[in-house]
Amino acid sequence: MEILLRTVEMPVIETDMWWGTLGTVRTFPNFKPEKDAREIQNALEKKDVNTLVRILTNRTNAQRQIIAQTYNTLTQKDLSPALKKVLSGGLQDLLLGLMMTPTQFDAHRLRQAMEGLGTDEETLLEVLCTRSALQLRDITIAYKQEFGRYLENDLISETSKDFTKLLLAILKKEQENMQGVIDYQLIDRDVKSLTEALSGKKADSAPWIRILTTRDSDHLNRVLSKWESVRGEVVDKALQSHFSGDLKLGLRVLVRSIQNTPLYLAQRLQTSMKKGSVLRGILISRSEEDLLGVRVEYRRLAQASLYSTIEKEFKGDLQMALLALCRAEDL
Known about the structure:
Elements: E1 3-4, H1 33-46, H2 49-56, H3 61-75, H4 79-86, H5 89-99, H6 102-114, H7 121-129, H8 133-147, H9 151-158, H10 161-171, H11 184-196, H12 205-212, H13 217-231, H14 235-242, H15 245-259, H16 261-272, H17 276-286, H18 291-302, H19 306-313, H20 316-326, E2 329-330
Antiparallel strand pairs: 1-2
Helix pairs in contact: 1-2, 1-3, 2-20, 4-5, 5-17, 5-20, 6-7, 6-8, 7-15, 10-12, 10-15, 11-13, 12-15, 14-15, 15-16, 16-17, 16-18, 19-20
């Protein structure tokens, strides 16, 4: 696959700095936080959005936190409230999201998914299913610090029945560390348990929840692959036919994220592109992790690049910032 870089009026990090990572935002070379902080200070005074976007989308989260500390030392003011005064709409949400730590950002997405009328189950699942056990523990702590509320209690109050059990099991997951050892007996037992759980008149979700939240991803991929081979059926279709409601959605998202997280996120982008919050959430949270992989899967699914889709769906300064995080066209 050929990658064509389109610049968005900003300096692009040398491509050799990108080697070995699937993120689009990398450590900025020759990083000078005081220079960045002063440029941001001037940009805020002049409402120079281009400069704000150029700097904040070309620094890693760790570098942005240093910039925020330096800005506070220089001005005796916090950077995020200063950005909020100058910006508005989707661009404000995007840059304020970039200024949060990853755990703070995830905590805010979870809270927003449960605020107001109705619950955004898909966002809850996206965040919870694509984070490691350690990340989920950190998010739980950040949630309490940010909102003075317990994430577990909010999940219980905003969801119901087996779907609640699934979310709490994901939140508290303590995955067994197989340390590269393939336990064929455990694989066979898990395949049998998952099969038996679907054999009765009513499918039993308990074995699916227990196994999917207490095994590491390598083991689970072997289990799911063997299950499909033995049954001659795709797991996703089996879940769709045996379960219903939010539980069905939750199990399907969990399985998809285990089997191929970038593909799952690309599918979510394809179905929710017009929801700017979904795009912002994925670009911010995956920009230093696996956004290149998400872009590749999106290209295969949509027969169009994520970059060109953003160009089509968004305009103005917000488009510029989104493209800066996406970074490049995939041909």
